[in-house]
Amino acid sequence: MLALRPNCECCDKDLPSHSVEAMICTYECTFCRTCVEEVLSNVCPNCGGGFCSRPIRPQIARRPGVGLEFQPPSGQRVLSTFSREEMQEFAQSIKGIVAEAR
Fold first, then answer.
1. Which branch of life, at top level (predicted)?
2. Residue 16 domain flag
3. Is residue 4 situated within a structural domain?
């Protein structure tokens, strides 16, 4: 189950569970759409993979035991160990390779 991390690992922008700005990679690294597009060129600085929109977890349990009430988002903020410049440099070095071939 997705942790639904609460912030962008690059700029620390709040990304609540209902945010359409949240983007994730296959390892659930979480970044805002602005950082993904303008800083990272759709390259995860941690694994080198691409990003997709993070799904929205239903706020209301429309099925028993399913929804935010039962599976709340993570409250643990995560920031990358890499600087913005290091992230951008890494992304620039491999952005020419399509995500499915990285």
1. Bacteria
2. no
3. no
State how many domains the chain has.
Answer: 1
Distance separating alpha carbons of residues 23 and 1, to the nearest angstrom: 16
DSSP annotation string for the chain: -----SB-TTT--B--TT-SSEEE-TT--EEEHHHHHHTSTT--TTTS---EEPPPPPSS-SBTTBSTTTSPPP------SS-HHHHHHHHHHHTTS-GGG-
Residue 5 in domain: no
What pTM did the predictor assign? 0.92
Q: What is the residue range of 59's domain? A: 22-101
Task: Output the tens digit of pLDDT for each of the chain's 102 residues.
Answer: 999 999 999 999 999 999 999 999 999 999 999 999 999 999 999 999 999 999 999 999 999 999 999 999 999 999 999 999 999 999 999 999 999 999
**DSSP bridge pairs for 52:** 24
The answer to whether residue 10 is domain-embedded is no
